[in-house]
Amino acid sequence: METRAWNSALRSYTAQLDGDRLDASVLLLPWYGFEKASSERMRQTYARICAQLGAGGGLLYRYLGEDSPGEGAFGICGFWGAEFLALGGGTAEEAQDAFLRLCGFANDVGLFAEEIDPATGHALGNFPQAFTHVGLINAALSLARRLGDETFEPTGVPPQGAEREAPEVRP
Question: Beta strand 12-13 with 54-56: parallel, antiparallel or unpaired?
């Protein structure tokens, strides 16, 4: 599996075995326990995904191709990148910076769309989008664990009476 999932020419894991197409979803491999985020292969994968699928501001396209013309960057993919950094693919500071930068794409009441226009920051696609919010929550939880602070709140305002033991949710 490890040999067929890795493309040595791209220096990246790919969307399918023996493939050559990048997909931001491979940033979830560390979360699923396939490989540590800090491994050389995962760091190379992250770098390749950022180089080819990066849309600026921490935003990522899921993949590029003929079947995705004119799409915006998928919100959940950016949060996958922030979570990857929080899981050890980068420093805690890099993870926090990426997370907070992505939070800036929320609307005035903190909701996210499915996609974000990288040029304008405007919401595109389905709104509000549960999957983007799932990515936000998972990245926040991983970042809080990385920072060693169970009270971490991205807004800096702790919720009143909030339950701290929330289950992790994955798409």
Answer: unpaired
